[in-house]
Amino acid sequence: MRTNMFLRLAALATIALAPVANAQVIAITGGTVYPVNGPKIENGTVLIRDGKIVAVGANVAVPADARRIDARGKWVTPGFINSATSLGLSEAGGPQFSGGYDDTGARGTDGVAASFEAWKGLNPVNTFIIPSRQEGVTSVVVAPGGGMVGGKAALIDLVDATAAVEMLRRAPTAMIGDFGSPGGGSTNSRAEYWAKWRTLLADVKAYQGRRAAYEAGNSRTLAASRADLEALIPVVSGQMPLALSVDRASDILAALAFAKENTLRLWILGGAEAWMVAREIAAAKVPVFTGAMNNIPVDFNSLGQRQENAAMLRAAGVTVVLVGNGPGGEESFNVRNIRQEAGNAVAYGLSWDEALRSITLAPAEVMGVAGQIGALAAGLDANVVVWSGDPFEFSSVAEQVFVRGRTFDTKSRQQQLTERYLTLPPGYRRP
After folding, report:
1. What percent of the chain shows pLDDT beyond 90?
2. How far out from the chain centre does Cα 221 lie?
3. What is the CA radius of gyration of the chain?
4. Are 145 and 105 within 8 A, CB to CB?
5. What distances in angstroms separate CA 201 from CA 205, 220, 231, one per listed residue?
6. What is the mean predicted confidence (pLDDT) over 57-65?
7. What is the distance between the alpha carbons of residues 317 and 288, in angstroms, rounded to a whole number?
8. Confidence check: pLDDT of 92 > 80
9. For the chain, which domains are there?
């Protein structure tokens, strides 16, 4: 009896681990296809099998058993990537509002929380995830905020999941820091703040070279905890990018010099005045993550903020990754607004093709996942969106969204509430 039970359990385990037989083949046919890594294809076909794109073109043979999606008159693009969000880390504005939560930042020590891994606090059923996906966003970077060194960011796919690990595509993608705002609990000026940065990286190198002495207690006091020093070793060795939030032109130049001095892989986040030093940024081959919704300075560090920033940077040869910089929670509940960000960038001088690239292939290349997502090409994961029209037009909608080759019919909280109150209770009288 017991033997039979074990045999049945073993058989069930084998079934669960075995690949799915007769996996569905999906053919998106007749649409205008924008592969991003090549010219657009009129009356094109995107063929998907086992979650992967297997063919893209105008003359793709469609298997007889494929599920066809008629995209005639529609636009087909890769799924959009929003590269600066806190999606899944907070809800309802924080604990002070309606019992919400906020896991976007760590307390750290003296402004340093390098060992903080933001995605470890990700809520996979966060109510903002589904609306983001429904608007064509298939991947996002989940990044920590606050402090001199905020911690590590991760790239996730917006699939339905019960555990955050199921959503991860790459972790970590970068170490997040701030280089333009004196702070961290012990500095009052920029010069002192930058000296603190230099001391921190020098101590990371000292710790890396003398771990045994540190463990034995034969080391001077270092600028960060052991966990934070360990977390920064990939940064000082050039393996992990350091993404610094910096807006003022002079601060950007200081950040470029700092990165060169320490042989760092640098990303610039924000870059309100980056257009002023675009030539220097291009020469340093540093990508800029910036937006196009805002031309109003939020402080004296961003007096030169302008909506042509992205276009001017790209014209100078800078790699531009568009992210949200407008009001209204673009990093959390309005992550989906990335397509409006791209549309605005086009209105202010960026070409349409470059705008599409800046939220698809450009971030994929910068993060080292261009062989997985960011374009429509054979071998890539099927993160694909079928649009009713130009995705940068406000009236267009995402009619079909595939993430890893799957569509999801999970309803958003907004949809659930709408449906709940469509039918009024018996005896209810309108006022």
Report:
1. 76
2. 36
3. 24
4. yes
5. 6, 15, 11
6. 95
7. 11
8. no
9. 81-373 (3.20.20.140)
